[in-house]
């Protein structure tokens, strides 16, 4: 091995070793410590100047070596001739003398020669074998050739040269032959021999192959090089056979195929360019395909997008130039733009910049889908939405973004991934998250197919916690988007709120609490505390009490108070009363307001007394001038918070922890006096917005506390408060106000009426009778008004005016169905008042029935069962709405966020009811039948298990009271002329009556005393069932407000009947049956009818509604096929059929029946006499469908129906198939094809009779009857 970087230097004369010297005397055991200033040193600049001077003088710097560019050859012949060796060595460089090279070569050569000469023949053979095994035979042969070549070159040089010797001339005039020349000569000799053995055609083929392999440029260079060598040899006088052969060979190569070579001199093909400029690179044609012209992609019709996410039309995609950057190596490289599939693929690129760009494009595509309207020119957004759905783009985008978030540390990639995650989840559509009011938004599980339902929060949250641990790591926009994603999860369901809660405290500490506030002059807005993070904190607390209990002791509440303090600072200090400061202060107050509704963290009312005093002074100063919207909201939130803390102090046992705030503590703070002063200031400015409503709500809570904790019920305090409000001018200002309908007005009048009811304890009242009467007339009978407001007006009307009992009951029933979750205390109070009301005065016609109930408590015995319908349990109890009427629910509330499901208002009793998915508020219109539900599931009924021990009514008494309450409810619907409210649907009444009969299907009544006979055979129960069903047999007068009294036109008789999946009774039964199909329940009803009914008329009437054509044919088969033996027991006239549709009995005749089994069953029942004209309803229905199918039916089914019918009595056949009364059909052939579609069954006498009987008298057409 040859080492280039080692330089031998002549060693200096060695110095004799010196004996060791003893250490210098020292007073300590260790060497003295020297400061670096006491040590001798040379500066770096001085050392650099010294080293540069050494280099310039040819010296060597310490630590640096000298590179040897040329190394003398080492070989066996190194010492043969000094002159010959000198001719083979390159000139020495860098100051190394000629004698050094010669000396090294001679020493190595002499050493090798002596070593070889000292070997025996066997040792030499052994060494040769080892070298051959180690390096191979090729290397040994090459070394022999080189030695022979060197020896030949030396001898020819001594003799003056030969004809086959090619020499080089050195600077010193000595010619020599290099090793490269020797190898070249050998290769040249081999090529010459090979070419001489070729003919002209073989040479031409070889040249072509070389040209294809290396290109024309290389061959042209070789040809010129050959010609130059030939001319050089001729000029030097070279002769001999070898030279002649070489000359003739190279001349032949130069002259062979000149036209072929010339054709490729200017070739610019990819292969020629590669051969010319990249000849050493391996040839890979597939990687050069992009250089070829792109093939047209006429079949590609996928929507394509530019880099801004805009849709590129097909015409523009084909016409846009390539320099715009929209063409790429996709499936259609000739088309500009990117398809959704290509964008998703490029989002996985290994190039970060490309990945970021494509994720941004995908974000813009999603964002445009939320806001851009369809474009008629390019297929529009509908096509894009379809492609996004087919490609599952949202789900894939969520997965791609999640992968980046979980694995990447690049801030750019993380920012793009978070934005993609936010957009793919639907972030731009979450505008309702921007509602900055104190109003609590309901849970919004509006899209159960949303990717957020399957989002792996348990895996993502630890990673987000890591990314958000450093405040400046992610940009503010990314932090905001992460917070909004977590907010969406918190408002989706209570379970997701509990899942995201653990990350919230650290997020608040890092991005809110640890951020200095207020900002100094010149600080950028991006460094402000994150308002979105504060909103996230409030959202999780609103959604779950468990989150509130986890966050309250987390140590983040106290630092948040700085935002409330700084908003009150005066202008001479650092002013923070800007929009950001107000938002931070309001979010902090809303957070404490939310915690207070759970009865938590109320101790801050006393521990931060100076803060609230300062804030009270600040709010009072705001009322003296014009205020911005944010400042008005700040005053509103502040008094809402005081009202909640007042409720917490009413009963200290309801707070968490107990006695966290007491009435004695807040009585000394003077909150009521401050509130009255604010009312006076607002009245003077004639302002009736949300501020006044919050102040009056706080005074309402104070009035409730006076009644509980005041002396003698707080009579004196309440009278003083009433006088103060009269002095403040509240009554006169409300009477003079014309702001009805303005924002905040409803809140003001509701709080005022509630305060009036709470303080009415003497001659003085907050509102006079004139104002009350006006408010009652405007809002009590208006179902659009909020239920709590109508409730307070009803209470005021009961105490201040003489209201008619029937009107009071009617409004009470109406308000009961309007209560929303969070108003359970008011609903329970109104229920008690309703059950205790004077029913005889409200409904004189029911006086005798109430006397027959047989229970001392009357309908009040239903109280435990109806209370459970309003408030089914405490596991998922919603906190009461503001203003909170009672502190009872503070400690047991599990959430502040309602479910968002409300009952739909129906203007007609025919509209199918919308059943709530869970028990509780809002009540469905048929809530009066809920006690029957508990009886039907008595074995597992919670209210029956939880009933007090002294509650012991019998099953019969519960049924009687329930039916009587339902009858009163229906009567209130019938007398409702002043307003329209949601009545009980006809389907719900039918279902409620069916429940009475299905009680006989039960085997246990959970300890209730039963009766010896069936419940439906009780005379009072039978009369009440008749009273409930009888109104359903006739079409009512049009509902108030209905524009068109005419029933809708019937469907075409020939229209095909599709299976109906949402029949009226099926919808009405959902809340009661749950997952059990109504069809199964109906079959149980039919079985029960067959076994115990004995033809009871009411029992039979309720079988008929599911037989109409609005229901699937399965219901008709269950009676006519599976329970045909029960047909004889149903003797209901057509006029007594319960009607569910405004079309009346036409619903049973149109469209025509097409089910073969049902048609055959109709014909069988008619032919065998199972139904007769005495069973009018079943008889005319079966005859109608059989006759219509015989005349207009086709094929074998028609023959089967007709054949079954013809097996019956002749009179029955004549009545069904009657065309001519004087021409019987007995013995005549079956009507042929000429009757198919040509003879309309409406022309028959039978059909006319059916239609005339079906239509109401006022709508019967004038049809001549034969």
Low-confidence parts: 67-71, 73-97, 156-176, 237-265, 374-379, 571-577, 901-918, 975-979, 1039-1060, 1219-1266
Class derived from helix and strand content: mainly alpha
Radius of gyration using CA atoms only: 52 Å
State the distance separating the first and last CA atoms. 129 Å
Largest beta sheet: strand ordering:
1-2
Counted beta strands: 4
Shape: flat
Strand content: under 5%
How many helical stretches? 57
Helix content: 40-55%
Mean pLDDT: 78
The largest pleated sheet is described as: 2 strands, antiparallel
Task: Report on this structure.
The protein is mainly α. It has a domain of about 130 residues. About 50% of the residues lie in helices and about 0% in strands. The strands form 2 sheets. A two-stranded antiparallel sheet has the order 1-2. The chain has a two-stranded antiparallel sheet with strand order 3-4. A hairpin with a 5-residue loop joins strand 1 and strand 2. Helix 19 packs antiparallel against helix 20, helix 19 runs parallel beside helix 22 and helix 36 packs antiparallel against helix 37. The longest helix has 22 residues. The chain is flat, with a radius of gyration of 52 Å. The C terminus is likely disordered.
Per-chain topology:
Layout: H1 44-56, H2 82-88, H3 98-117, H4 121-135, H5 137-158, E1 168-169, E2 175-176, H6 179-196, H7 200-214, H8 216-235, H9 241-255, H10 258-263, H11 270-277, E3 304-305, E4 311-312, H12 314-319, H13 340-346, H14 352-371, H15 380-390, H16 393-407, H17 411-424, H18 457-467, H19 476-490, H20 494-500, H21 504-513, H22 531-543, H23 545-551, H24 557-566, H25 579-597, H26 604-607, H27 609-622, H28 629-650, H29 663-667, H30 671-684, H31 690-709, H32 715-728, H33 730-736, H34 745-759, H35 769-779, H36 787-800, H37 805-816, H38 824-835, H39 839-842, H40 847-851, H41 863-870, H42 930-936, H43 942-946, H44 955-974, H45 986-998, H46 1019-1029, H47 1064-1068, H48 1070-1073, H49 1078-1092, H50 1097-1101, H51 1113-1120, H52 1146-1149, H53 1156-1168, H54 1176-1192, H55 1195-1206, H56 1210-1217, H57 1245-1254
Helix pairs in contact: 4-5, 7-8, 8-9, 13-14, 14-17, 16-17, 17-19, 19-20, 19-22, 20-22, 21-22, 22-23, 22-25, 24-25, 25-28, 28-31, 30-31, 30-32, 31-34, 34-36, 35-36, 36-37, 37-38, 38-41, 42-44, 44-46, 49-51, 51-53, 53-54, 53-55
